[in-house]
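S1.2 Input.
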Amino acid sequence: MGTIGGNLCNASPAADSAPPLIAFGAKVKLVEAEKERVVPLEDFFVGNGVTCLSPKEILMEAQVPEPSGPMGSAFIKWGGSRLT
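S1.3 Output.
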């Protein structure tokens, strides 16, 4: 089990939640003491396993904009390397 926040903060290039959230235009709210900032998810990741979080910040929430009209999506996880 895990959380979306933990999945994002791990910044793994194999993360399942990051690509669709980026495609949907998600942002993350980062909080430190009395300060907070909202960062587009594509700017949150700065490298393999590295985020823009400062040592004292936590990811408080992921914000996904409400769609402006009808839409759909699908996710297929390709787990194998062989076609059978």
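S1.4 Remarks. The chain has three helices and five strands.
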